[in-house]
Design a protein that fits this description.
By secondary structure, this protein is an alpha/beta fold. It is 36% helix and 26% strand. The protein is built from twelve helices and 16 strands. Helix 5 runs parallel beside helix 6 and helix 10 (316-331) packs across helix 11 (341-348). The radius of gyration is 21 Å and the shape is globular.
Length: 365
């Protein structure tokens, strides 16, 4: 019998299944999925953000206040939000179209150039003259993150613009293998956009992967697969997670409300828990209790691999396992480096012990 938490033992009355009994988690099967990533057509609809990193070398404490005074070293721009997700997908071999909102400013111009440089199709991006491009400025003092400044409009896009976003998406769904809704609560992923995309995708038999934030979480009804962190999921239905039983109840509740095929909850250093209609499956962190989920870019890398795996014909367990691998690999990379299939394949070659620690139990007890 595997080593599992006493909480999990107490919450499940039927026998546990081991990772080896889950189809497709052998090394060669996972590698085969990754090798099918190339050329998959992914449509990303979501909040486009520009991340700016300002590097400062502190010299002393300022005389006027107890804060560091330092010298400006330089700054780096990187795509954020749905733009970063698109970058990760392209780096993994996908063909990507991105739809979202930007302002009429220099930051939008930089993003458009970056999309062109990476071969990301962006003709569906709408310029809204009334709002700025979402900008996150990270102040890095001596290499440590000391402050983040956000310049953005977090209100939902007006109905007329939501309809334009939806029209741009609907014209591309037919030619996509998977649609990803990348929600960062910056106004693009509204209830109108979600319901319209779900309806169109369903009629064409397309997969929709949803990455909800807070504001519109329960509007992701009918999305094929939903992935979020545990805090967002708990806030969505006002539940407190105190043990594995309450987590199980949360997952089953959300599965019912969202009417999705599966719900993937990331749990920081506790790993990930997958809810589908038959079972609850816990995927522990690959390298022990490390909270890499909070690192910049990890969420998008995990979502990108999850979506690409499903678009490549994987089952939901393979997609979750590969997403877990992606989180670990991405956390080890510098923020300027995107994920690659080569880096994924290297880590997949070491997953045998990890797979042995996966725990599964039936939903119905």
């Amino acid at each position: 019998m595997q080593q599992i938490s006493s909480k999990l033992k107490a919450s499940i009355s039927q026998p546990l299944l081991t990772g080896l009994m889950i189809e497709g988690l052998e090394r060669e099967s996972l590698l085969s999925v990754v090798r099918n990533f190339h050329g998959k057509r992914i449509l990303v609809v979501g909040d486009i953000i520009l991340s700016r990193y300002v590097e400062v070398a502190a010299r002393k404490l300022a005389r006027e206040a107890p804060v560091p005074a330092g010298d400006y070293i330089g700054e780096t721009y990187l795509p954020g939000g749905a733009a970063n997700l698109a970058r990760e997908l392209v780096s993994l071999g996908a063909t990507v179209s991105v739809i979202g909102l930007v302002g009429n400013d220099e930051y939008a111009s930089w993003l458009m150039q970056e999309f062109d440089r990476n071969g990301i199709e962006h003709s569906g991006i709408i310029v809204d003259q009334t709002r700025p491009t979402s900008l996150r400025t990270w102040i890095m003092v001596n290499g440590f993150h000391s402050l983040r400044i956000d310049r953005e409009d977090r209100r939902d896009a007006p109905l007329a613009i939501s309809k334009r976003i939806l029209a741009e998406a609907e014209s591309r769904i037919k030619d996509s293998d998977c649609i990803v809704l990348s929600d960062y609560d910056r106004g693009v992923v509204t209830s109108v956009v979600i319901s319209g995309i779900v309806s169109s995708a369903f009629s064409l038999g397309k997969i929709v992967v949803g990455q909800p934030k807070m504001h519109h979480y329960l509007d992701f009804q009918g999305v094929t697969y939903v992935k979020s962190n545990i805090q967002e999921a708990a806030n969505a239905i006002g539940m407190s997670i105190v043990n594995e039983t309450s987590l199980r109840n949360l997952g089953i509740n959300l599965m019912s409300r969202l009417d999705c095929k599966a719900l993937l909850i990331t749990r920081g250093e506790e790993g990930m828990t997958l809810f589908d209609r038959e079972s609850v499956t816990h995927f522990p962190p690959i390298a022990g209790r490390r909270n890499f989920f909070s690192k910049v870019g990890v969420r998008d890398a995990m979502t990108g691999v999850f979506a690409l795996a499903l678009a490549s014909g994987s089952n939901i367990y393979q997609a979750t396992c590969l997403s877990n691998v992606a989180g670990y690999v991405r956390s080890e990379l510098q923020r300027t480096v995107a994920l690659s299939t080569h880096s994924l394949e290297e880590q997949i070659s070491k997953v045998e012990e990890f797979v042995q620690r996966i725990v599964q139990a039936p939903v119905r007890r």
